[in-house]
Design brief:
Length: 146
């Protein structure tokens, strides 16, 4: 069993005891300036020692709580590293976004619409036909282009 905060508690105890000794030794000279200084300094040391003992006790309690926490929980450093890491890729189950129209032009009475995914749509006489690529359009129409 690990003993957390024991050193802090012992330092607080030493501080409080030395403060109590200072108060006791200054009591006989309380009417002199030296006695008052010893008494006030001792009282300050006692109160500081009590606070240090309380901090040591809190460290002990928090240490025992930390021992009971499962190791699977992320530490603060892990959370900081995760927050600074670049965002992960989009979920594979998300539907693909529709392509965006990039360009549109008219030639020989037909409207040609080019999309961001490389596909081409040809609109002629109210009918529209979509090709997966410009090469597929050229192959279907027999136009070499270049």
């Amino acid at each position: 069993m690990r003993r957390y905060g024991l050193g802090v508690i012992f330092l607080g105890l030493a501080l409080a005891l030395s403060g109590a000794y200072g108060m006791w030794s200054g009591w006989d000279y309380i009417q002199l300036e030296r006695g008052w200084s010893l008494f006030i300094g001792g009282a300050t040391a006692v109160s500081g020692g009590v606070v240090t003992i309380a901090i040591g006790r809190a460290i002990g309690v928090l240490g025992r709580i930390a021992d009971k926490v499962p190791a699977t929980q992320a530490s603060a450093a892990d959370l900081i590293n995760e927050a600074q890491a670049p965002p992960q890729s989009v979920d594979a189950t998300a539907p693909p976004k529709p392509p965006v129209e990039v360009d549109r032009y008219i030639a020989s009475g037909s409207v040609y619409v080019m999309f961001s995914d490389g596909s081409v749509e040809v609109q002629t006489d109210g009918a529209a036909r979509r090709y997966p690529s410009l090469a597929a359009l050229r192959a279907d129409t027999g136009v070499g282009g270049g």
